[in-house]
Automatic annotation (TrEMBL):
Location(s), subcellular: Cell inner membrane
Upper taxonomic lineage: Bacteria, Bacillati, Bacillota, Clostridia, Eubacteriales
Family the UniProt entry places it in: Belongs to the ApbE family.
Cofactor binding note from Swiss-Prot or TrEMBL: Magnesium. Can also use manganese.
Entry function: Flavin transferase that catalyzes the transfer of the FMN moiety of FAD and its covalent binding to the hydroxyl group of a threonine residue in a target flavoprotein.
MF terms (GO), sorted A to Z: metal ion binding; transferase activity
A UniProt-annotated Pfam family: ApbE
Protein name: FAD:protein FMN transferase
Length: 350
């Protein structure tokens, strides 16, 4: 999915966490896990089940992922989101209940974050097209006039809804939705429901690093999740947290970017300036009960450390880990006795 992760400030929250010691047997015989992987939502998706169930359950989980991809991926010309975008400034488009729900949640987070998160970021996503650019790119940067034009079309308040008929309209011609900052989170929750309804009590859903744990490990202990070191390759973590029935979602500047004239331009866009967010942060990880909430709130990245911590602390049941470019780590109060630094190059500051 064109990850238009947004926060009047943000796009494309690339996320990378890793699962550590996923199953501990404690001397007891355990069921051999089953898993399946596929590229969907423009990201590697993997579901691993630790219960004794038919592999058909994995097929049902990936059917759900394909359904979300088909309906909500703005890069898919036949998606419901594309249908809405194609009618911008012209009229309402009827969408499925699920797509309507995700768009409505996106608007809710636009309001909650005082316009920091914005699902109408599509024009800026298309203009920068970070996903399509090479690391050392020769293509010219967008001009200031192009940025100003695209930025003028970003306003979630111009996403109009008809609740009774599940119709959506973009008020201004040229507007476009990009649900990349929230649809993957919704997909994680939807897959979890599929698994639970088919007898699964212990599983890991990993959607390109957006991790959702179903239950605990089979021995009843917490899952140990590694938080990506933003300076190194995927799978190299700087610390760990232990969770059960939680989502862990990260937004960072280290995965999707290109370099032009020696400067890095990453995928996390500031919709108030039209440029990639420029602050002291390298990544933000959100820990919450629902993956859709974690996906949207990962854009707390754009607030920076101080305001980001205040914002997350004001949200009930939400915790966060903020990692700066100079390897300092800040955590919210609920993680004080949970998050553990495992890489001595990083320093826990609070």
């Amino acid at each position: 999915m064109t990850k238009g992760r947004v926060f009047k400030g943000l796009i494309l929250g690339a996320v990378t966490l890793s699962l550590i010691g996923s199953l501990v047997s404690c001397g007891k015989k355990t069921t051999e896990p089953i898993s399946k992987s596929e590229i969907l939502l423009d990201t590697p998706c993997k579901v691993t089940i630790y219960d004794k169930v038919s592999s058909d359950v994995l097929d049902k989980a990936f059917d759900k992922l394909r359904e979300v991809d088909k309906k909500m991926n703005a890069a898919n010309e036949d998606s419901e989101v594309s249908a809405v975008n194609n009618q911008a400034g012209k009229g309402y488009v009827k969408v499925s209940d699920n797509t309507f729900y995700v768009i409505k949640e996106g608007i809710k987070y636009g309001e909650l974050t005082n316009e920091k998160f914005d699902i109408s970021v599509g024009p800026l996503v298309k203009l920068w097209h970070v996903n399509q650019r090479k690391e050392n790119d020769t293509e010219p940067l967008p001009t200031q006039d192009q940025i100003n034009q695209a930025k003028s079309l970003v306003n979630y308040k111009n996403v109009l809804l008809k609740e009774d008929t599940k119709e959506v309209m973009l008020k201004e011609p040229g507007m476009s939705l990009d649900l990349g900052g929230i649809a993957k989170g919704y997909a994680g929750d939807a897959v979890a429901e599929v698994l639970k309804s088919n007898g699964v009590s212990h599983a890991i859903i990993d959607l390109g690093g957006n991790i959702l744990t179903v239950g605990s490990k089979t021995d009843g202990s917490d899952w140990k999740i590694g938080v990506q070191n933003p300076n190194n390759e995927r799978g190299d973590y700087l610390g760990t947290i232990e969770v059960t029935d939680k989502a862990v979602v990260t937004s960072g500047i280290y995965e999707r970017y290109f370099i032009k004239d020696g400067k890095k331009y990453h995928h996390i866009l500031d919709t108030s300036t039209g440029y990639p967010v420029d602050n002291e942060l390298a990544s933000v990880s959100i820990i919450t009960n629902k993956s859709i909430d974690g996906d949207a709130l990962a854009k707390a990245f754009c607030f920076g450390v101080d305001n980001g911590l205040k914002f997350i602390e004001s949200q009930k049941g939400i915790e966060a880990i903020f990692v700066t470019k100079d390897n300092k780590v800040y955590v919210t109060s609920g993680l004080k006795n949970n998050f553990k630094i495992t890489d001595n190059n990083f320093k826990l500051m609070n």
